[in-house]
Specification:
With 507 residues, the protein is α/β, with parallel strands linked by helices. It has three domains: 104 residues, ATPase, nucleotide binding domain (Nucleotidyltransferase, domain 5), CATH 3.30.420.40; 179 residues, Exopolyphosphatase. Domain 2 (Nucleotidyltransferase, domain 5); 196 residues, Hypothetical protein af1432, CATH 1.10.3210. Helices cover 48% and strands 17% of the residues. The chain has 22 helices and 14 strands. Strand 2 and strand 3 form a beta hairpin. Helix 14 runs parallel beside helix 17.
């Protein structure tokens, strides 16, 4: 009998690509047996993708060509390592009017799917990268200053509970105030006033109690804090940051370039003004530098997506926040989600969808009625529009589109592949939407009264079809009448008859 294999389990290589405002970065890493990430390769190309975007609203052709050249090289490295890739672009491409053309070119010429992520998703990823494996009870405040935006987050453990993205960045502020040269006292006053106004308009007035030390995760913050703190290096007080701003504003470009990398020297004063303003507005005592950020968050996100046993409620929590914003019927939404997930779990062998589709069904179920805030008669279509345009952290564009389509098909027309509402989806996405939407339609019909009469649901399937057993707490005549309409659509999608069996508990 051969000895059991001692070969360690294979862990795929993960790749994070970050198209920022100042530079484009690549990191390749492999998870070890304990879930820690071992870096295999890093690259950084300071091609300044955001140069001119905030002034003109367009990424110039020569900048786009430099970006494409860089991403083609990164893509080749990823293919060589057979890596699982997530590539994202942040504020520069978010604001470029020609972003769709650039994303298309990246796909055609480099073979990469480049996501233009929202500010909140950027903040979530940074938070995930900085706080990965943080003790569950630790409360943190995180600040990240990029070229075009500044992200602020509060978190417990590694889970963010507040995410904000501000239209403040070191490149943006430098271009607006022409601050790459020596900054006059008048310019400095205007810059500080501008930063203060954006902070006041973007961050809520009733902020929760915050830690007195903020974590700063970007290269700009690292450079500013090191300059301000001198020998202490990794931590700078609010007073030291104010002194640093005054000193940097008074330096000539030549003197700044002797102290900082040339590309950083042009924008360092603006970065310092932003950091000073954030610290004052939040009332923290100091900033400590951490050497992790967006790329680390992308890698952790890829790592978590591989782990189908991970119990992550962040998407459902985000959906509930959106639902409350539109004054949805939360009891009904939660009941429909509970019933839909029970169907998903019990009929896994029938629908054969990956476990990663489960949170998408939950989000669609929680949000299926938010279109009522616009108009009841066409609320399924309004729901689609609201979800499609919602800023939901943790979702790629394609995932948000699938959730929006599933919710859209919770009523009226069934999710037929030939229906106009299915246009633009890949064949795999069509199959997913059809199956999830069919489960959602059944679940929604089983709470048609919005009174949650069903206490428990158990589903099974065999040669004769699917049997759904309902334990009820009150009459379900309306629910049974409505769900009969879903018998034929269910059979068309899953090829199975469906029957319902009601059980009244003994009183």
């Amino acid at each position: 009998m051969p000895a059991p294999s001692t070969k360690p389990p294979h862990h795929p290589v993960l790749a994070a690509i970050d198209v920022g405002t100042n530079a484009v970065r690549l990191e390749l890493a492999r998870p070890d047996a304990d879930g820690a990430l071992e870096t295999l390769h890093q690259e950084r190309d300071p091609i300044r993708p955001g140069e001119g975007v905030f002034a003109t609203g367009l990424m110039p052709a020569e900048t786009a060509d430099r970006l494409l050249s860089t991403l083609r090289r990164y893509a080749a490295l990823c293919r060589r390592h057979k890596a699982q890739v997530r590539a994202v672009a942040t504020s520069a491409l978010r604001e470029a009017r020609n972003r769709e053309d650039i994303v298309r070119r990246v796909h055609e010429e480099a073979g990469l799917h480049l996501e233009v992520v929202s500010g909140k998703e950027e903040a979530r990823l940074i938070c995930l990268g900085v706080l990965h494996r943080k003790p569950a009870s630790t409360r943190s405040l995180l600040v990240d200053i990029g070229g075009g935006s500044t992200e602020v987050a509060t978190a417990v453990g590694e889970r963010p509970d507040n995410l904000w993205s501000l239209a403040l960045g070191s490149v943006r502020l430098t271009e607006v105030f022409d601050a790459s040269r020596k900054v006059t006292p008048k310019q400095l006053r205007l810059m500080r006033s501008f930063v203060s106004e954006v902070l006041r308009k973007t961050l809520p007035a009733d902020l929760p109690p915050l830690p007195k030390v903020a974590l700063g995760s970007s290269g700009t913050i690292n450079a500013v804090v090191s300059f301000a703190a001198g020998e202490n290096g990794g931590n700078a007080t609010a007073r030291q940051l104010t002194q640093a701003v005054e000193t940097l504003a008074d330096l000539t470009p030549e003197r700044r370039r002797k102290r900082f990398d040339p590309r950083r020297a042009d924008i360092i004063t603006s970065g310092a003004v932003i950091l000073e303003g954030v610290v004052k507005h939040l009332g923290v005592d100091s900033v400590s530098v951490v050497n992790r950020g967006l790329r680390d968050g992308l890698l952790v996100d890829l790592l978590y997506r591989q782990d189908e046993t991970r119990d992550d409620h962040s998407l459902a929590d985000a959906a509930l926040v959106i639902g409350r914003r539109f004054l949805f019927d939360e009891k009904h939404a939660r009941q429909v989600a509970r019933l839909a997930l029970a169907l998903f779990d019990d009929l896994a062998a029938l629908h054969q969808l990956p476990l990663s589709a489960r949170p998408h069904l939950e989000a669609a179920a929680l949000l299926h009625d938010i279109g009522n805030a616009v108009n009841y008669e066409r609320h399924h279509k309004h729901t689609y529009y609201l979800i499609r345009n919602a800023d939901i952290p943790g979702l790629a564009d394609g995932e948000r589109e699938v959730i929006a389509r599933v919710a859209r098909y919770h009523r009226r027309s069934p999710p037929d592949p030939r229906h106009s509402g299915m246009e633009g989806l890949t064949p795999a996405e069509v199959r997913t939407v059809r199956k999830l939407a069919t489960l959602l339609r059944v679940a929604d019909s089983l709470d048609r009264s919005h009174h949650q009469p069903i206490k428990a649901l158990k589903a099974s399937h065999g040669r004769d079809g699917v049997a759904i057993h309902l334990t009820t707490r009150q009459p379900v005549d309306l629910e049974l009448w409505n769900v009969e309409r879903e018998v034929l659509p269910f059979r068309r999608v899953f090829g199975k008859r469906i029957s319902f069996h009601v059980h009244h508990p003994q009183r």
